[in-house]
Design brief:
249 residues, alpha/beta, 5-stranded mixed beta sheet, two-stranded parallel ribbon, 7 strands, 47% helix
């Protein structure tokens, strides 16, 4: 995920350094070093945490001295609290981010949590960083970041599964797999684009605008969610994902 985000972060004009003993090549314009000793005397305005959570307590303390006086920590490490990161980084201000997979193509949706000691300038910089990767939503607490994880962080999995089932249904209606995929993904893409282009129109109104009484869409919608089953399933989906995020704190 760090590499996917970096491709878009670079559009802001900042200079980036990666410390990774396993990486053989970095994007053009990015400095790559294999060991922290290579940057021992360097100071950075932002240190980005893109490691596994279980590595934080062992790895991060060595980098506390590399943070500039007015710098902050930006973390995409899932499940690692701001308090834990702050302690590991010697009391530095921390911004936690929960991005999702579409950030790889510049269409991500991220929850952004600024810790209590984060300045307005630091929070603004973190938001601008994440907006380069797509949509960024500020949240007010670790709990709300867990809820954002349930909605957006895990969300691509739900959407892929819905699309998979939609394509399979189209194939059962007689379309070849490539035709079914094109019809379904094109319909989903166009519908979402229409919703985004009309932010002041509710999704219910948009749905009604393509639904004629007694028509084909009305018949399909009645089968899809006439009994509220789809709504109940999605509510249960988000609740289950949120509960699991709480367990993993």
């Amino acid at each position: 995920m760090g590499g996917a985000l970096l491709d878009h972060w670079m559009s802001g004009g900042e200079n980036f350094t990666i410390v990774d003993p396993m990486l053989d090549q970095a994007p053009d314009g990015v400095r790559l070093v294999k060991d922290r000793s290579a940057i021992a005397d360097d100071r950075f305005d932002t240190i980005i945490v893109a490691i596994k959570p279980q590595m934080i307590d062992d790895v991060l303390p060595d980098y506390a001295a590399n943070l500039a006086e007015n710098g902050y920590v930006l973390s995409i490490a899932a499940g690692a609290s701001a308090a834990r990161l702050k302690k590991a980084m010697g009391g530095a201000p921390v911004v936690r981010v929960m991005p999702n997979l579409p950030a790889a193509v510049g269409k991500g949706t991220s929850g952004v949590l600024a810790g209590p000691d984060v300045s307005e300038a630091q929070a603004s910089h973190a938001m601008k960083m994440m907006q380069r990767t797509g949509t960024a939503i500020a949240v007010e607490s670790e709990d709300m970041l867990d809820r954002a994880t349930a909605v957006a962080g895990s969300g691509p999995g739900y959407v892929f599964e819905i699309a998979r089932a939609y394509v399979a249904a189209a194939e059962q209606l007689g379309f070849a797999p490539d035709q079914a995929r094109a019809l379904v993904l094109g319909t989903m893409e166009g519908t979402i684009a229409m919703a985004l282009a009309n932010p002041d129109t509710s999704l219910e109104e948009l749905r009604n605008s393509v639904t004629s009484k007694g028509g084909t869409t009305a018949a399909g919608l009645d089968a899809l969610n006439g009994d509220g089953g789809l709504s109940d399933t999605l509510t249960a989906t988000l609740k289950s994902a949120y509960d699991r995020a709480v367990e993993l704190r």
